[in-house]
C-alpha cells in the first residue's frame, strides 16, 4: 500500500464506524452479521495511521444506548469490539478502553485495558469507547470533582485529548454522543460508504480535505 504524504496531519483522529447493519441488510444478511466485517477495516485504519505518524486514534465501539438493541445484535457488536481490541493488543500501540465498566454490559475481557497499556513499542495511542455514554462521562466528572469549575479534568474520558478530525462512515451527519468535550472543535468529515466497505482512499480523502480547513479553535 502506497502511503500518501500530507503537509499537515491531525494529531488525533476519531472514527465512527457506522453502517454495519445497513451493509448486512444490503447483502441479504441478518443485521447482526455486519459487525464482524468491521474488524478488518479498523486494523487497516490503524496500519495507515501508524505509517503516517498520526499520534492518536479513537474508535467508537458501542454506546450505552446501543445496548438496547436486540440481544443477537448486542452480542455481535460486543464480540467485534473484543476481537478488535485483542487484535490491536498484538501490535505496536498504547491501548485504552473507556466506558462504564461497572455495568454488566461492559465485556469482562476488556477490563485489563481500562488503564492505558503499552504493547510493543507503543508507537501510537489507540482509544476504544466501549459501553460509553456521554451522560455517564460528564456526570462522572461532576461527581468526582471537589471544585465543580474543574469537573472537565475529572470526566471519565479525561485521558483522551481534544480530537482534531472526526471521520464518520455510513453517511449520517451526527456525533451520536461521541466525547462531547473532546469534539467541541473537531472538524467532521462524512464518508457515504458503509464501514465494512472501507477503502484506504476514504481515509486519504478525509486527510486531504483536512488540509484546507481553517483551524481556529474558536479564536
Report on this model:
- 28% of the residues lie in helices and 18% in strands.
- By secondary structure, it is α/β, with parallel strands linked by helices.
- The protein has one domain: 3-Layer(aba) Sandwich (Undecaprenyl pyrophosphate synthetase), CATH 3.40.1180.10.
- Strands 4-3-5-2-1-6-7 form a seven-stranded mixed sheet, sandwiched between helices.
- Helix 2 runs parallel beside helix 3.
Question: What is the arithmetic mean of pLDDT?
Answer: 95
Q: In percent, how much strand structure appears in the residues?
A: 15-25%
Number of domains: 1
The CATH class turns out to be Alpha Beta
Note the overall shape. Answer: globular
Detail the poorly predicted runs. Answer: none
Number of helices: 5
Biggest sheet architecture: 7 strands, mixed
- Output the helix-strand order: EHHEHEEEHEEH
Strand tally, please? 7
- Going by helix content, strand content and strand pairing, the class is alpha/beta
The main sheet orders its strands as 4-3-5-2-1-6-7
Distance between the termini: 38 Å
Give the CATH superfamily: Decaprenyl diphosphate synthase-like
CATH architecture: 3-Layer(aba) Sandwich
Question: Could you write a compact summary of the structure shown?
Answer:
With 219 residues, the chain is of the alpha/beta class. 28% of the residues lie in helices and 18% in strands.
Amino acid at each position: 500500500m502506497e502511503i500518501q504524504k500530507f503537509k499537515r496531519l491531525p494529531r488525533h483522529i476519531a472514527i465512527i464506524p457506522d453502517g454495519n447493519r445497513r451493509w448486512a441488510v444490503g447483502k441479504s444478511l441478518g443485521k447482526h452479521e455486519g459487525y464482524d466485517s468491521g474488524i478488518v477495516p479498523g486494523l487497516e485504519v490503524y496500519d495507515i495511521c501508524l505509517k503516517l505518524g498520526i499520534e492518536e486514534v479513537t474508535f467508537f465501539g458501542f454506546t450505552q444506548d446501543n445496548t438496547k438493541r436486540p440481544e443477537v445484535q448486542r452480542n455481535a457488536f460486543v464480540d467485534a469490539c473484543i476481537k478488535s481490541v485483542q487484535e490491536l493488543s498484538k501490535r505496536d500501540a498504547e491501548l485504552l478502553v473507556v466506558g462504564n465498566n461497572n455495568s454488566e454490559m461492559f465485556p469482562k475481557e476488556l477490563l485489563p485495558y481500562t488503564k492505558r497499556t503499552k504493547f510493543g513499542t507503543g508507537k501510537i495511542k489507540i482509544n476504544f469507547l466501549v459501553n460509553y455514554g456521554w451522560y455517564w462521562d460528564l456526570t462522572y466528572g461532576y461527581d468526582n470533582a471537589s471544585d465543580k469549575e474543574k469537573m472537565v479534568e475529572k470526566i471519565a474520558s479525561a485521558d483522551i485529548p481534544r480530537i482534531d478530525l472526526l471521520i464518520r462512515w455510513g453517511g449520517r451527519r451526527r456525533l451520536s454522543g461521541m466525547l462531547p468535550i473532546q469534539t467541541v472543535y473537531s472538524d467532521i468529515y462524512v464518508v457515504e460508504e458503509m464501514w465494512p466497505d472501507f477503502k484506504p482512499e476514504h481515509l486519504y480523502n478525509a486527510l486531504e480535505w483536512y488540509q484546507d480547513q481553517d483551524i481556529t479553535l474558536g479564536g
